[in-house]
Amino acid sequence: MSKRRVVVTGLGMVSPVGNDVESSWNSIINGKSGIGELTRLNKDDFPATAVGELKGFTIEDHMEKKEARKMDRFTQYAVVSSKMAVKDAQLDINESNADRIGVWIGSGIGGMETFEKQFETFLNRGYRRVSPFFVPMMIPDMAAGQVSIALGAKGMNSCTVTACASGTNSIGDAFKVIQRGDADAMITGGSEAPISQMAMAGFIANTALTLNQDVTKASRPFDKDRDGFVMGEGAGILVLEELEHAIARNAPIYAEIVGYGSTGDAYHITAPSPGGEGGVRAMRQSLEDAGISPQEVGYINAHGTSTPYNDKYETMAIKEVFESHAYQLAVSSTKSMTGHLLGAAGGVEAIFTVLALKDQVLPPTINLDNPDPECDLDYVPHEAKKADIAVAMSNSLGFGGHNATIVFRKWDQ
């Protein structure tokens, strides 16, 4: 059975570097960081104070306050970004096509903020005062559920929860839904709102977060002085569509999604397998799925978390997959500017990868002031640069040993 071709026709985003796709991308290609001092919580309660918060974002600008109060932040971000993406795709969802349009949006930890607030209510005021919306606000699948309701999409509705690989796995899974013929379009990506007391405390406790007090320099992937990631929030949503369906309605096409790989380390709950072995297999799977040779890849949007093991092992994995070509392609980590959006990272970074292909611009890795000798690839340090690239890849690696890779090809009309 021949595989149906799938293209990207719409993009939507809220992120630490901008409250829409255009402003976020402009920040990225200009090397502008969205990382700053923690303001949502009392920063004196935590030794880690660098975060990637949304700025100037007001949910009441996008929906009624009564409606917003029934959603955790991560769901709000998903709904807002999904509406942007569908509008950008010029996709009209109605009774004639609703059952052929689905939603697949991942989240790593879901409604952590809601859980904290409702547990505090329970402790102080008893079970009767816990909100009846507590559970539907908290569960990670509710981003997909609320997007489906808001947009009227009645096709496959799902959520992938694979920690920091959630967004990429969701996009890959949605791609396969269309490819095999179970939908004509999918609204997909990731959403996360993890800047909460317990999420901060938990990641600090397992030494994952940077303690760098110079917040502008705190996220420094592939730098020898990196000491942990910066937590960020937001959502990145794409509309994926079967090629002929998109052409028939004269939809805008950003890029073609051509490959997906997903593997497990079977090694450790938080640490990556030595040498990035699981990532090696995910990248190879994605290339095989795409029918593309390693030499055709021109750019990789790396997972690049700014943690000691990830950056070293991801570099090793890239060198194993691409061999001598690893030194010819560009690799960058946009987390140097956004921070790590956990389950939303894959969605946001997929958008940056698609736009890198469309605009033929390589996003930079900022704060790469003292390169780690063990990280010796072209990480596009400090400034974006123009390039002629036809194929690009995006990697996501998550706690639990989850590895996901997606591959995009430049769209030539």
Automatic annotation (TrEMBL):
<dbReference type="InterPro" id="IPR014031">
    <property type="entry name" value="Ketoacyl_synth_C"/>
</dbReference>
<comment type="similarity">
    <text>Belongs to the thiolase-like superfamily. Beta-ketoacyl-ACP synthases family.</text>
</comment>
<protein>
    <recommendedName>
        <fullName>3-oxoacyl-[acyl-carrier-protein] synthase 2</fullName>
        <ecNumber>2.3.1.179</ecNumber>
    </recommendedName>
</protein>
<dbReference type="InterPro" id="IPR016039">
    <property type="entry name" value="Thiolase-like"/>
</dbReference>
<dbReference type="InterPro" id="IPR020841">
    <property type="entry name" value="PKS_Beta-ketoAc_synthase_dom"/>
</dbReference>
<dbReference type="Pfam" id="PF00109">
    <property type="entry name" value="ketoacyl-synt"/>
</dbReference>
<keyword id="KW-0276">Fatty acid metabolism</keyword>
<comment type="pathway">
    <text>Lipid metabolism; fatty acid biosynthesis.</text>
</comment>
<keyword id="KW-0012">Acyltransferase</keyword>
<dbReference type="InterPro" id="IPR017568">
    <property type="entry name" value="3-oxoacyl-ACP_synth-2"/>
</dbReference>
<feature type="domain" description="Ketosynthase family 3 (KS3)">
    <location>
        <begin position="3"/>
        <end position="410"/>
    </location>
</feature>
<dbReference type="GO" id="GO:0004315">
    <property type="term" value="F:3-oxoacyl-[acyl-carrier-protein] synthase activity"/>
</dbReference>
<dbReference type="Pfam" id="PF02801">
    <property type="entry name" value="Ketoacyl-synt_C"/>
</dbReference>
<dbReference type="InterPro" id="IPR018201">
    <property type="entry name" value="Ketoacyl_synth_AS"/>
</dbReference>
<dbReference type="InterPro" id="IPR000794">
    <property type="entry name" value="Beta-ketoacyl_synthase"/>
</dbReference>
<keyword id="KW-0808">Transferase</keyword>
<dbReference type="GO" id="GO:0006633">
    <property type="term" value="P:fatty acid biosynthetic process"/>
</dbReference>
<feature type="active site" description="For beta-ketoacyl synthase activity">
    <location>
        <position position="164"/>
    </location>
</feature>
<keyword id="KW-0443">Lipid metabolism</keyword>
<dbReference type="GO" id="GO:0005829">
    <property type="term" value="C:cytosol"/>
</dbReference>
<keyword id="KW-0275">Fatty acid biosynthesis</keyword>
<keyword id="KW-0444">Lipid biosynthesis</keyword>
<dbReference type="InterPro" id="IPR014030">
    <property type="entry name" value="Ketoacyl_synth_N"/>
</dbReference>
<comment type="function">
    <text>Involved in the type II fatty acid elongation cycle. Catalyzes the elongation of a wide range of acyl-ACP by the addition of two carbons from malonyl-ACP to an acyl acceptor. Can efficiently catalyze the conversion of palmitoleoyl-ACP (cis-hexadec-9-enoyl-ACP) to cis-vaccenoyl-ACP (cis-octadec-11-enoyl-ACP), an essential step in the thermal regulation of fatty acid composition.</text>
</comment>
